[in-house]
Hints:
Blueprint: H1 14-46, H2 54-57, H3 59-74, H4 80-107, H5 113-136, H6 140-151, H7 154-158, H8 165-184, H9 188-209, H10 214-254, H11 257-296, E1 302-303, H12 306-317, E2 318-319, E3 323-332, E4 334-345, E5 348-349, E6 364-370, E7 373-377, H13 383-393
Antiparallel strand pairs: 1-7, 2-5, 3-4, 4-6, 6-7
Helix pairs in contact: 1-3, 1-4, 1-8, 3-4, 4-5, 4-6, 5-6, 5-10, 6-9, 6-10, 8-9, 9-10, 10-11, 11-13
Amino acid sequence: MTAKGIPDNGIPDKKSIMWQLLLIILPWLVLYAVDNFYPNLLRLLFGPFVRVPTFVALAPFEILLAIGTIIAWKRNFPQWSYTWIGTLYFFGYREIFEIVLGLAPRVLPENPELIALAFYGIVNPLALAFLLAWITRRDWLYACLAAYPFTSIIMAWYTLDTTPFLVLSTSLVLYGFFAVLFLVLQSRTLKFASLLGGTLIVGGGFFLYYWQGVRSLLFIVVRNVLILVFPLVVSRSASRFALIIRNLASRFTQRERKANSTSHRRKLLLGVAIVVLVASVVLTSIWSYSSGQLRALKGQKVHATPEDGMRELVASSYSGVEKVELVYGGESVFDDLWFAEAHVWAASRSDGKGFSTRDYDNPGWYFLQVQSGWVFVPESRFPEIIALGKWLFGLSE
């Protein structure tokens, strides 16, 4: 990636703005179409009760992102492409995460949770930091633009099947609005402020809609703001860091062998200290979030089994239920976290969302085991993180 930043050459023409806006929102329109029609096509081809894995169901969407990123690379990465890069990173990471979790019991059968902890708590933050730092080499605003989908619209659209259409459409309109502000505004400060506004309003607004307490909202808002601000911090300290590195390299070449050995030890200790610091922050965040969510779940209704919980949720979420078939029910990495999926033939859903082109709905819900049974955990509460904190720190509700 060449070191070419955003040019200060005035406001782009209207046609260019509309074209870039279309490309910025295009992936989400494709995701909606893929989610509603592609799994049905696979079931039509391979049988009505086939369980479509996530990486298969999202394959056309991710292929589009990959091809678009390659085209953008050939065109020297126009502005719209950075939102594609950020979106591709998130969904690509999630697919790799699902594969790793599937292999974890085979690789480390005694404690497969350790692999999930290492991947989620260390690999993902470092990989995202590396990606944003790499883009910052060209322009820190481009790196913020790559982080923008991750900090704003991702959560509403990642839970696409359970999010009402009105929330989806509103989040997409606001996402596009703040992207247009980024494209139109000339001041770099205002460009950054537009992305920050989108992060707070789109990302934070989703969690206000699904209110789950102040702790949950603060956790998400602070995390998203830190991700968005990270490229700015890196850019401000990059020149100073480069100077320090050059000085260290100069000293390294001038010292004797013993001094070189000491320098190696210092760098090793510094690297270990950085890893320990990152791990400590991640572990503290997991503990704080998991313990808060477990306290919030105390008021939830307890079910004898996840299957019983799913049947009660179907009864309360649908009207005119004709038939219910349990498609899948099993552990989701952790022994005390289950995912249950069903096919429901009913007249309508309580949230007003239709069944698209099929005559049944395909809901899936997470259930967490507590001392007295199983409780339903909405996907927007990150049930994997709660289960990870529960297992890692021995938390109880």
